[in-house]
Amino acid sequence: MSERWFVAGGAGFIGSHLVDRLVDWGPGTVYDNLSVGRRERVADHVERGTVTLKVADLLDLKQLEQAMAEHEIVFHLAANPEARWGLENPRLDLEQGTIVTHNVLEAMRRTGARRLVFASSGTVYGDTAEPCGEEDLGHLPISLYGASKLASEALISAYVECFGLQAWIFRFGNVAGPRGTHGAALDFLYRLKTNPVDLEVLGDGRQAKPYVWVADVVDAILFALEHAPGPLSVLNIAPPDVTAVSRIAELCVAASPNPTATIRYRGGERGWPGDVPRSRMLGDRLAALGYRLTRTSDEAVAAAVAALAKEVFEGHAAPPSRAQRERGS
Ligand SMILES: NC(=O)c1ccc[n+]([C@@H]2O[C@H](COP(=O)([O-])OP(=O)(O)OC[C@H]3O[C@@H](n4cnc5c(N)ncnc54)[C@H](O)[C@@H]3O)[C@@H](O)[C@H]2O)c1
């Protein structure tokens, strides 16, 4: 491919892994307000001249439109990163999810960018432990984050139909890997850094979700761009198996400087209101296109904990900023 590409949220976790691959296509733009993302994640590419980093907010439609001019394909990976932050600030997902997605679509319509990749999530399937394929939307989302993802998907479908865009909506499981910015493993590792003696875990530890290796996510997206030619493709990216929170906590303790730290579970079967305690996703559509994930959920988590433990205990990684959750009020 040689299209000029644009990644909204490209200095974040998944976005920066994607950018590492897109530079092979030629030059492109990362648009990020650095609320969670970090400049150093794309700094090498910027130095080499393959990436232009525009530090600006997606809520600023004028700047977005200016920055997006003369790009053909847009990857939209910006959002409130933590579903539970919506409990503290109920406007957060409306603004950072739904309105931001509308701005991305509007900027595309105005600039003539035609192809969109959107990062959605398995949270659109709501509170069900049944394995969900792409058609299984019988249960509506139960978090504000999930609601904003489903609203964004609906907006994308409407823009495809009304304004001739081509779009790929990817519903990720929980994504795991180096440079993670949030999620259970990183949270546990930071807690263990502050308190090496015992680890408090929200919920009873039996919550279990599918975890997908970040490099598989990027590969699957690039594969689907070539192999799913329809005007609108909706694809799950998740392994069929799941990993329990208790397993993640055990791996984090084992990877910490004090592998004898005790784990204390606090609360019931749900980590927080809006959390789906057990979810499963089916990846049949992606498999039918010919793509196979390289890691199971347990393998993805084990590799991610090993990488993140190095970053947290040996590196100088700072915990995710609180600025993002305080926005949008
Ligand atoms: N990580 C997961 O487990 C997971 C699972 C399912 C879906 N997703 C979705 O994938 C996408 C990427 O997730 P991630 O884990 O890389 O998150 P991330 O927070 O690491 O990356 C998002 C990036 O977007 C930027 N950003 C956020 N709001 C912005 C705004 N208003 N203007 C400009 N930049 C903004 C942040 O600074 C950050 O660099 C998100 O849409 C997320 O909802 C992630």
Outline the structure in words.
The model is unreliable at 322-329 (pLDDT under 50). The chain is of the alpha/beta class. The longest helix has 20 residues, at 92-111. The N and C termini lie far apart (40 Å). The chain folds into 2 domains: 5-176 and 212-237, Rossmann fold (3-Layer(aba) Sandwich), CATH 3.40.50.720; 184-209 and 241-274 and 294-326, UDP-galactose 4-epimerase, domain 1 (Alpha-Beta Complex). α1 links the parallel β1 (5-8) and β2. α1 packs across α8 (214-227) and α9 packs parallel to α11. Strands 3-2-1-4-5-7-12 form a 7-stranded parallel beta sheet, sandwiched between helices. The protein has a two-stranded parallel sheet with strand order 6-15. Strands 8-11 form a two-stranded parallel sheet. 50% of the residues are buried. It is built from 12 helices and 15 strands. The site of nicotinamide-adenine-dinucleotide has 28 residues, from α1, α5, β5 and β8. Nicotinamide-adenine-dinucleotide is lined by residues 9, 11-15, 32-37, 57-59, 77-79, 81, 96, 100, 119, 121, 172, 174-175, 181, 183.
Please give the structural blueprint.
Layout: E1 5-8, H1 13-22, E2 28-32, H2 43-48, E3 51-55, H3 61-68, E4 73-76, H4 85-88, H5 92-111, E5 115-121, E6 131-132, H6 144-163, E7 166-172, E8 174-176, H7 184-194, E9 198-202, E10 208-209, E11 211-213, H8 214-227, E12 232-237, E13 243-244, H9 245-255, E14 262-266, E15 280-281, H10 284-289, H11 297-314, H12 323-326
Parallel strand pairs: 1-2, 1-4, 2-3, 4-5, 5-7, 6-15, 7-12, 8-11, 9-14
Antiparallel strand pairs: 10-13
